[in-house]
Amino acid sequence: MSAASPLLAELIGSLRCLPGVGGKTAQRMAFHLLERERERGSKLAEVMREAIQRIGHCRRCRTLSEDSVCAMCMSSNRDKQLLCVVESPADLTSIEQATGYRGQYFVLMGRLSPLDGLGPQELGMDLLIQRLAEGEIKEMILATNPTVEGEATAHYLGKLAQAAGVKASRLAHGVPLGGELEYIDRNTLAHAFGSRLLMD
Amino acid sequence: MSAASPLLAELIGSLRCLPGVGGKTAQRMAFHLLERERERGSKLAEVMREAIQRIGHCRRCRTLSEDSVCAMCMSSNRDKQLLCVVESPADLTSIEQATGYRGQYFVLMGRLSPLDGLGPQELGMDLLIQRLAEGEIKEMILATNPTVEGEATAHYLGKLAQAAGVKASRLAHGVPLGGELEYIDRNTLAHAFGSRLLMD
């Protein structure tokens, strides 16, 4: 095919920058766009160009936003005493969709990972310290991932909160709802067993 | 998230025009592009725009091509006495990659399907009849899919070949290489059994 249309070959190659898209899928996408979805494909190309050009990071919470301060930070409807710290905009979206949380967010855009060159500075900790120093925040909810690096990051954030005299909380660990004990990993089960709660 | 960035929400929505991409995948793609692949993403948007704008169909074989006659039809290295008829450019690519075929192609861009409004005219049969009338082609290889509609199309094409006095051949049916008889569907097995060949 590459012989018949260099431009088509280039489109197939470029589509592979999308996550989870290999050669076969990229080919299927390219044919689909050209044979059936030219209009929506043109629109997608235009939106993609514009989004990459215009979307940056919110000056206040570091999430992805085309405004210098995002709508969520600007909103007067959100509780300014609660700050939930997450690793990524995707985590923010998950919490927004799953919970009734109405406080504010701070997005690290990563987790402490010295081997990858991600230190406190890269994660905007100075901005966070400044936020805490403003004195408005009463509780900082640490919603980093329950991975080794996420836990280390939460530990570090906990120290920051302590230094600023702000209460810090962490998402509860335990057995997921709807799971079967038989299939839950040992560490989680041991943790859930140890942290068992009295029924009321 | 839609509240925080309308442009991001639009990008996620637009990505769903890609085949096999639902809401969750579109979200993952959008975050990936904005957080990690801005450069390749811009390039993709540009190539996509250009491909959709410039790629049309080859005047001679109807495959996708940015030139009015594709490189394969122009090539002097390909046997002009053989014409392989396929349903789509993807099928053409598969045959190019799998076989040593060095003849020419004709791409129907579909299959006879009256219910979908696809008749001989939509599939460029007049162009094909013209090709056969040129007298250069000696054999037409019918490589439409082994589906009901593909078989009906092959049958129709066979009649065209007959009318033009051109030999027509069809891909062989049988058990696929590497398959296990236990798992092969009944019709295929019955066909392969009936068409068994003497070993030499």
Would you kindly provide a written description of the structure presented here, covering whatever features stand out?
Two copies of one chain form a homodimer. The first copy, chain A, has 200 residues and is an alpha/beta fold. In chain A, the strands form two sheets. In chain A, strands 4-3-5-6 form a four-stranded parallel beta sheet. In chain A, a hairpin with a 6-residue loop joins β1 (56-57) and β2 (64-65). The first copy, chain A, contains eight helices and six strands; from the N terminus they run αααββαβαβαβαβα. Helices cover 45% and strands 12% of the residues of chain A. Chains A and B meet through α1, α2, α3, β2 and α5 of A and α1, α2, α3, β2 and α5 of B.
